[in-house]
Design a protein that fits this description.
This protein is an all-alpha fold. 60% of the residues lie in helices and 0% in strands. It is elongated and about 60 Å long. One of its GO terms (cellular component) is cytoskeleton.
Length: 191
């Protein structure tokens, strides 16, 4: 029997959310696979998503990364317990599996949802404060965030850039090329 034929995977792909919920709640370590993790990242029913994330936190499979990255689009969820579990998974991966997970967050900075963009900026800022460096911000265009249509995103981006400045000093200016002169002036006053 292939993994695609397994009753566990069939139940996780069921259209009935209660079956999916029960399946995640009863998962055993040997049943968790990259395919199940990929399916979880596409889950839209919050109780089912939270049950799946809880199981991953209990067993912490070594192949969690990179399959779990799409789950980070749920960082803007209004359910605090789910958000804290997703953050716990993020920090587990960052500390134990791969520092590269931080760079995977940068793709969410281009998302159309300003709440998600703000959540990701705050997370990157927290990592910068906690670790003192973002490892490598090359290739990241922070000027788009400073000129974002949402004021919350602009405000959080300003705070992030100031935090990055503490480590990179003048080199941070490379990442904000093309920003309007008035924004640059405000930033330089903060530096």
């Amino acid at each position: 029997m292939t993994e695609a034929d397994s009753p566990t995977l069939k139940n996780i792909k069921s259209t009935d959310w209660k079956i999916r919920l029960q399946t995640y709640q009863s998962l055993q370590p040997h049943e968790i696979s990259p395919e199940i993790i990929k399916t979880l990242t596409k889950e839209t029913t919050v109780p089912v998503l939270e049950a799946g994330v809880s199981i991953l936190l209990i067993y912490k499979p070594s192949y969690l990364y990179p399959h779990i990255v799409p789950l980070f689009c749920n960082l803007c969820t209004s359910k605090v317990s789910l958000k804290s579990k997703i953050l716990e998974i993020f920090f587990y991966i960052l500390n134990n599996l791969s520092k590269e997970v931080l760079f995977d967050l940068f793709i969410f900075l281009e998302n159309k949802n300003p709440k998600l963009v703000c959540s990701v900026i705050v997370l990157i800022k927290d990592v910068t404060k906690q670790y003192g460096v973002i490892y490598n911000v090359e290739g990241v265009n922070l000027s788009n965030l400073l000129q974002h249509s949402d004021s919350s995103v602009r405000k959080e981006a300003m705070v992030l850039i100031i935090e990055i400045y503490k480590t990179y000093k003048e080199r941070v200016l490379i990442y904000i090329k093309g920003v309007k002169p008035i924004i640059l002036k405000n930033l330089e006053e903060e530096f």
